[in-house]
Amino acid sequence: MDNAASINVAVRIRPPSAWEAARLPDPTDSTRPFFGDGQLSAQARPTTFGQFRNIIAYEEDGSLIYDPMDPQAEAIYRTKGYLPPGTYRYKHRKYQYDNVFGPHITQKEVFERTTKPLLDGILDGYNGTVFAYGATGCGKTHTISGTPTDPGIIYATMAELFQRIDERKEDYTVDVSLSFLEIYNEEIRDLLSPAGVPAPRGGLAIREDSANRVTVVGLTEVVPTNADEVNTIVQAGNARRTQSPTHANATSSRSHAVLQVSVIQSPRTPGVTEERTVATLSIIDLAGSERASATKNMGKRMVEGANINKSLLALGNCINALCEPRTRAHIPYRNSKLTRLLKFSLGGNCRTVMIVCVAPTSAHLEDTGNTLAYANRAKEIKTKVSKNIMDVDRHVGQYVEAINRLNDEVRELKAKLAGEMAMENEAVRRRRANAAKAVEAARNEIRALATKSRTMLCTGSFTAGNTAASNAKLEVIRARLKQIEAGGELTSDLETEKALLSSVATAEEEVIKKEADTLSRASNTAAMFTTNVGLAQKRKGEDWDESAPALLKMEGDVVLAEMRAAQAEHERDGLKNALTGQAQVIAALVGMLARTNALVGDGARMLNTLSESGTTPEEIATKLQTIVEINDKAFSEVIGVSTKSVAPTGKTAFTNLSAPPAPAARKRTSFTGANIAVRPRQSTGARRTSLNGLGSPGRRGHGFKSPRKQSSMRPNPANARKVAEKKSVRWAVPIDPAADLADPTTPTPKATALPTIESQEWEDDRTDDSSTSAAEASTSMSLDAAALSWGNSNSASAQKPQDQSGDQDPESKVLITLKEEDEPTPRRTVLGDHNPSVGKGRRKSITGPTRSDRPRRRSSLIPQLSPRHSSASKAVEPPAHRKSPKKPKRNSLLGALSSSRMIRPSLLKIGVETPTSTSAKPSWK
Ligand SMILES: Nc1ncnc2c1ncn2[C@@H]1O[C@H](COP(=O)(O)OP(=O)(O)OP(=O)(O)O)[C@@H](O)[C@H]1O
């Protein structure tokens, strides 16, 4: 489709040269003299005072005033009286162009607003021409070619062209070729001809073909691949261009230079008929018009100038003819080589841009006036543009070629597609693999965190269990101490009790203090562990699939849950360990107490029957003292302090001991730690005794006799008998497990914590058999058979075995009732099923034969703590009296405690294993 188009005319005003600038008036000086050529003559002359002035005023919208009126200068002129007839009158001619570029406008901006719009057409098959016109030295070459540092329109155009070709290379094949020529003295010269090839005489010939194309015969065509290459080519061509210094321009181009860029574009998919678009972009740097008088050229330069002027005159005539509808039928293109070359650029199928270069000062007043008038005329020229489409019909041979090309293209596309798919698959596979690797790494990290923290956290939990037990113990001990202190003045027995309990409490506090550090570290580790697992759970990767975060979350939750389970197990182990150790200590102490009770009873009986036994009171006293020493030794070893080391200062309560009244009902106390301190009931009105001392607290107002009122602390046998009869002390005896064994379903009384002990009823199991000796009573206490063994009164070497129950498993031999406070659950006893005396008349202790069954123990009056020698793996054996009348070798309780891995060092200062030893090894999954 044809489009009507006008020549786009832009005026570029170059900056004043240094020579001009030096002669321009200072714009701030209002007293400057009037200057100018002052003539109306056609010939320009130097200004009156050797000074120039600006002769162009312009606006950005393209309006321009040539030789504008200067009111100030005129006023000065008139003031000075210079107004003779024929004096200078400002031309003040107004023009309107498509663009006016001031001196400050850059090359790039000139390109953007003049040539760039042509490029859209070039790739669509529309021809385009850009030419620079103007007087010599006005900036044509600068605008078209520029300098290496500030390239002109050619470089900017080619850079843009190659970029656009690159953008459409998928769809089109674009061939670019260029030629560069000059018209010098009406001869066409090839500026790109290979070196050494002589130029034809008279220059290259111009041909015009039937398709209205002008071609130069024999012109070299080069195929550039990028803008830089073009720039190099143009610079090389410019170097070969005829240039000579003239008076007006030191680097004056003495020829017209024409760069022709041919662009042929064909679609990449060829059909039977190929539709190619062909376009030519011509970029022309004309030689400058010159006035011979101004240039002062002589000889050759003058001939050059004449030829230049001739061709420019021909161009002007063509432009005039093109603008005149009357003369449009005949345009004198043939008058010069230049107009012949520009024939289709000016009046044919071409979009044309004319960049008119002018100087800004009055030094070029006339040239500038002519140029602007010329340009104003040129903008009237109308061209008709149409798309240059070439339909190439193929003959048979070309079909084969086209098919081959198509096949090649199909192959190329298939390979590309396959490559892309392979790349995509590879990329997806790599992404997945990376994601899986990252997820696995994160999971491993979570697992590693667990492994790293497990030991500390489990140790902490075990310690927490131990500490909880210690705290519970401490609470009980402190309550008891408070109770003792509340009683006022202390008797020696209470002082002893207080000292021992304080000592145990101090040891316990020390342990808790030490454990606090472990607990704190475990707590820090737990916080860090939870935080780190949380962070690892929240980790995200760009290329992870959706399941990855869920997987991580699950992994973290599992690890946290496993850790919590392990911690709970260890805390339970810690508690169990503390409880077992505690139970064994209790068993040891109760055993000790029971035996002591029995022996004291024996002593009392012996005192009663001094004449029969033939023993002296002194001997009995010695034995009793031995009991004290052995007990002290045991105290030292079990709780770390002995009664002897306490050195009581209080009054003795011994002489005030008296028997409690007959109980109202049978009541039992449970055998929990809290009940160790069970005291006689006050409500009975009887004097109370302490379980852990031989005397009751000598409280005033409770019916106790003051020890001072006793005739002697150490009674003679007769007195002792009297005292024994009179006082018939009743002890708060722990429950007889035999009762439980007799009927396991019998509900067990509640274990009562210390604060409620005062109100608790208690009674000896044998209150209805008051004549039964204390020794016999002691046998009814069900104690850990292993922890109880009778020792020789004098030395360990003279020990005699009393029973065999020590062979049983250490943990299974704890006969002490284990029950929660206030929990009415039946007591657990280990040996209950083996008690042969269940339901057979008088209850018997399961720990050994009854008094009638067993040999007399006169030779073993003193209780001896003996260890159990059995291994943990040994099965529970029936009580000794069922198994064999022969008694096994007795072992000391200390040994038993040593062999037990559950006794804590704080309580047992002998070489036993710590809670973290193998027996307490966590049972992790
Ligand atoms: N816009 C411009 N900015 C800076 N310098 C310019 C500008 N235009 C021209 N000049 C300078 O003016 C001088 C003359 O310019 P140029 O050679 O391009 O003129 P010309 O019109 O090509 O002259 P001729 O017709 O004689 O070849 C050069 O030194 C050039 O660098």
UniProtKB/TrEMBL annotation:
The cross-references to InterPro entries, in alphabetical order and at most eight, read: Kinesin-like_fam, Kinesin_motor_CS, Kinesin_motor_dom, Kinesin_motor_dom_sf, P-loop_NTPase
* Stored SMART domains: KISc
Query: Quick one: which residues bind ATP?
Result: G134, A135, T136, G137, C138, G139, K140, T141
Tell me which GO cellular component terms the UniProt record holds. microtubule
Single Gene Ontology BP term? microtubule-based movement
Task: Report residue spans for region: Disordered.
Answer: 657-925
Extent of Basic residues compositional bias: 699-708, 881-890
Q: Name one GO molecular function term.
A: microtubule motor activity
Record's compositionally biased regions (Polar residues): 681-693, 790-807, 861-873, 914-925
Keyword terms? ATP-binding, Coiled coil, Microtubule, Motor protein, Nucleotide-binding
Entry coiled-coil feature ranges:
396-452
Q: Which domain of life is it from?
A: Eukaryota
Low complexity: which segments have biased composition? 736-756, 770-782
Alphabetized Pfam families for the sequence? Kinesin
Tell me which residues make up the Kinesin motor domain: 6-381
Task: Tell me the protein family, please.
Answer: Belongs to the TRAFAC class myosin-kinesin ATPase superfamily. Kinesin family.
Q: What is this protein called?
A: Kinesin-like protein
